[in-house]
Amino acid sequence: MSLLELHAVSKRFGGLIANQDVSFAVDAGQIVGLIGPNGAGKTTAFNCVAGYYAPSAGRITLGGQTISGLAPEACARAGVGRTFQVARTFTSMTAGENVLAAALLRHRRVGAAREQASRWLEFVGLERLAERPAGSLTISEQRRMAVARALATEPRVLLMDEVMAGLNPSEVREMVVVVLKIRERGIACLVVEHVLEGIMPIADRIVVLDRGVKIADGTPAEVSSDAAVISAYLGDA
Amino acid sequence: MSRTAWLRLAVLAAALAAPFVVADASHLNLLILVLMAAQLGVAWNLLGGYAGQVSLGHAAFYGIGAYTSTLLLLNFGVNPWLGMLAGGAAAALLSVAFGWSCFRLKGHYFAMATIAVAEIVQIVFTNWEYGGAAVGLTIPMSHDGWAWMVFAEKRPYYWIALGLLLATLAATAIVERCHIGYYLRAIKDEPDAARSIGIDIKRYKQIALSLSAFFTALGGSFYAQKELYIDPGSVLSTALSIKMSLVAILGGIGAMFGPVAGAVVLTTIEEITRSVFGGSGRGTDTIIYAALIIAIAVFYPTGVLGWLRGRIARRNARRAHGARVEALR
């Protein structure tokens, strides 16, 4: 049994089928990339796992426990952490307080949560910015702060939605280091990426979606030589 | 002790001693009105400022407080101090129904729903015989003194109003420092991200609303004891709801002392315009009062407190800059 499992998950919005019978699994300490062209249904699948959508059909389990249909806050409690495409920073707070607010989930006392927060800020390399207003951080820093915030909920699986999009090459390298460190801690990572350069070298497995359907699932090498994947990305020749 | 702690202690001592210095009853009454407005603004701020849920129906809680303590006193002889707590509890209870119906809506729609709920409460009390209907209720002066919260002079009312304000500020300070404060700000800033870190949004909005309703109702009970007369127009009107939000918004939303600053400015303007331009019967005072409110909103969008803080920050920056220039020479 894997840590996170999707069993034939489908999600329909009226007549639009965003996900159709999508099944895959993520093990503890594994980085799984979820890729696919625009409109492939990556973010929809992601939102089903994090509780923002209830699947129309199918089942999602975390450690054997069904989490599909739970509210986002219940998913967070169960051990699903997530980041968003835009950082969704709490702008009335400092960077440290952003992470502190998340640490309160497992540590109700503010003092204890503050200690946890500074640990996670250090983990992503932002400890010197703890006292800064969060809105004044650069995009790259806010992305890493959002990762620290998600980690502070002490998740078993961390969902990262396009954390590398729009970053310059050196910022992508910083983020890659963070993702690798997260895997070292035994946390499962499910990474949605539109850009493949960041995720391909570090992923243990890649799941490819196209038009809501899973078309490939394997190591990065297997997937990048798969005929269906090539035609999905480049179009049918 | 830090400088701000000393400053706060000095302000508190001055506030406690004020009734001994201010001899004129009408001046003391103005101070009481400021304290009452500040207390309501601080209570409103718990929901409107910290959780970002703008309520224009808080008069419902104020009225519930006033009516609960007064009805308990008139019909069952219940001591007003206990009646005040009962009023707070009743308002906190009503706020669950209020939240259940209104928190389904967001932003402007939430604000509109709160007006509707408050209107319903007002209509119920206007037509309810037991509650005095449109005629209202009068509290007799037969029992007076601290035990019955009825006084012939103004000074005790001043101290009670000050006590209520301090209690509401203390509750705000506790909320601000514990997990609830962080959760409310997270909900206000980014509700979706707040859910992703495990915050049950409805639950925490309701906690903020219940606390806010409780303290607003205490203010209502106090009003009843001070005026010894209540009717739907004086304790349940929409104008009252708007005033509570104005005090907080003009003072500085989401900051602990913002509504206090707002109450000082707003109540002073209100009373001055009334004494200078009132009595003409043409509503000149109201027009000028409204114009001044618009001016504050336009020129000081962060509120009176935000403007003061900005000034202090700029002054400090100038001084720091001057010191750096000196050091370079």
Written overview of the protein:
Chain A has 237 residues and is α/β, with parallel strands linked by helices. Chain A folds into two domains: 1-79 and 155-237, Rossmann fold, CATH 3.40.50; 86-153. Chain A is 35% helix and 25% strand. Chain A has helices at residues 42-49, 72-78, 95-103, 110-123, 139-151, 169-184, 196-199, 220-224, 227-234; strands at 4-13, 16-26, 31-35, 57-62, 65-66, 80-82, 157-161, 188-192, 205-210, 213-218. In chain A, strands 6-7-8-3-9-10 form a six-stranded mixed beta sheet, with helices on both faces. Chain A has a four-stranded antiparallel beta sheet with strand order 2-1-4-5, covered by helices on one side. The longest helix of chain A is centred in the C-terminal third of the chain and has 16 residues, at 169-184. Chain A is globular. By secondary structure, chain B is mostly helical. Chain B has one domain. Chain B is built from 14 helices and two strands; from the N terminus they run H-H-H-H-H-E-H-H-H-H-E-H-H-H-H-H. Chain B has helices spanning 3-21, 25-50, 59-76, 80-102, 107-127, 155-177, 179-189, 191-196, 201-227, 232-235, 238-251, 258-277, 284-299, 303-328; strands at 137-138, 229-230. A two-stranded antiparallel sheet of chain B has the order 1-2. In chain B, helix 1 runs antiparallel to helix 6 (155-177), helix 2 (25-50) runs parallel beside helix 6 (155-177) and helix 3 packs parallel to helix 5 (107-127). The mean pLDDT of chain B is 90. Classes of the chains: A alpha/beta (237), B mainly alpha (329).
Can you tag this structure with a few keywords?
A: alpha/beta; 2 domains; six-stranded mixed beta sheet; four-stranded antiparallel beta sheet; 9 helices; B: 329 residues; mainly alpha; two-stranded antiparallel sheet; 14 helices; 2 strands; 1% strand
Topology, pairings included?
The complex is a heterodimer of chains A (237) and B (329).
Chain A: E1 4-13, E2 16-26, E3 31-35, H1 42-49, E4 57-62, E5 65-66, H2 72-78, E6 80-82, H3 95-103, H4 110-123, H5 139-151, E7 157-161, H6 169-184, E8 188-192, H7 196-199, E9 205-210, E10 213-218, H8 220-224, H9 227-234
Chain B: H1 3-21, H2 25-50, H3 59-76, H4 80-102, H5 107-127, E1 137-138, H6 155-177, H7 179-189, H8 191-196, H9 201-227, E2 229-230, H10 232-235, H11 238-251, H12 258-277, H13 284-299, H14 303-328
Antiparallel strand pairs in B: 1-2
Helix pairs in contact in B: 1-6, 2-6, 2-9, 2-11, 2-12, 3-4, 3-5, 3-9, 4-9, 6-7, 6-9, 7-9, 11-12, 11-14, 12-13, 12-14
